[in-house]
Amino acid sequence: MSTDKPTVFVTRQIPAMGLEAIARVAEMRVHEKPMPPTRQELLQGVQGCAGILSLLSDRIDSEVFDAAGANLRVVSNFAVGYNNIDVTEAKRRDISVGNTPDVLTDATADIAVALILAAARRLREAADGVIHGQWKTWEPLGWIGMDLRGKTLGIVGMGRIGQATAERLVHGWQMKLLYTSRSPKPDVDRQLGGRHVALDELLSDSDVISVHVSLSPETRHLINAEALSKVKLNTVLVNTSRGEVIDQMALVTALKKQQLFAAGLDVCDPEPLPVNHPLLELPNCIVLPHIGSATVSARNAMAQRAARNLIAGIQGQPLPFAVHQSHLHTHPTNQT
Ligand code: DGY
Predict the structure, then answer these.
(1) Tens of pLDDT along 96-119?
(2) CA-CA 20 to 30 A from 319: which of 8, 42, 120, 286?
(3) Domain map of the chain by residue range?
(4) Would you call 294 exposed, middle or buried from its count of C-beta atoms within 10 A (0-12, 13-18, 19+)?
(5) Is 287 helix (H, G, I), strand (E, B) or coil?
């Protein structure tokens, strides 16, 4: 049955409050399966759509734009990161792109701190030890980890999540703070005693390194074998941004050689990480299934922001959370 409402494709079930808002103004196709749409399902699903609500696991590129056709006005990503979207191509075609900043900052910073503590205090090894019967007695020399208080924290990429992670560790554990970012951040320097440094200095002087840069051609394998060779012994490395920022095979080597004390990863390359991946055999590495934003309030707020971006885009309005704003044009179905 045809309606006057523009059609949108939502590539997965998201929290209901997002879907309900979209359903009020759009003809909604939702990919209902638990796994992401296959390429074929994606290309079919977007046909004739004015909007796409995508997840970080959906590659949105010129092939998808072609499949959607001339009606496509907006791609709204259910994530703050948008490396899955070819934004250059979206700009060329005057398609708006939106994301969901801010609302997952605290949840993700909490996971970064959780991983830092887990890696520093060897929680994976200790918990595995309990399960595998290695807990024979209270051991004065067993499961010895690393203290954080007063140590140096290196934040690679001082954006919103990097700063929220630094706030927790500077205020909670009195860590000294080094950071990289495109330019110094006077607020961070004043409020957290941070020092803007080059990556090499951060690598060689930090006890804990937490990675928060977004993924781009410049940051792909930013932490490679050469970078890892610069860290001091007994450093903890944590990544909650995108897996591709770290060269994982170089990380495996560094962990095996105990060049690093331990690593904690919420993101991997690829995702999901195959269960036979060498990283998973290392006792000094803890890997989580990309759960940085997995809290009720963060995911509900992401759904609301993604829905607002999608609705604004199909209605020819400015996106409230825009990565790229198209030149505004009213969707044909809204013209009087
Ligand atoms: C994002 O929004 O980019 C996060 O990685 C999702 O948790």
Answers:
(1) 999 999 999 999 999 999 999 999
(2) 42
(3) 7-102+296-324, 105-287
(4) middle
(5) strand
The model's pTM is 0.95
What dotted CATH number matches 105-287? 3.40.50.720
DSSP per residue over 44-63, as a string? HHTTT-SEEEE-TTS-B-HH
- Which residue's entry shows tokens 């909604």? 28
| Domain topology for 7-102+296-324 | Rossmann fold (3.40.50)
Q: Is 290 a catalytic residue?
A: yes
Distance 293 CA to ligand 1 centre (A): 6
At 47-92, the pLDDT tens digits run 999 999 999 999 999 999 999 999 999 999 999 999 999 999 999 9
Point out the ligand 1 atom lying closest to the alpha carbon of residue 100. 2
Q: Could you tell me the distance, in angstroms and rounded to a whole number, from the CA of residue 81 to the centre of ligand 1?
A: 6
- Given a contact cutoff of 8 angstroms between Cβ atoms, the answer to whether 287 and 279 are in contact is yes
Domain 105-287 in the same topology as domain 7-102+296-324: yes
Q: How far is CA 241 from CA 79, 112, 157, 267, 327, in A?
A: 11, 10, 10, 7, 30
Active-site annotation holder among 196, 212, 290, 324:
290
- Cβ-in-10-Å burial (0-12, 13-18, 19+) of 136 comes to exposed
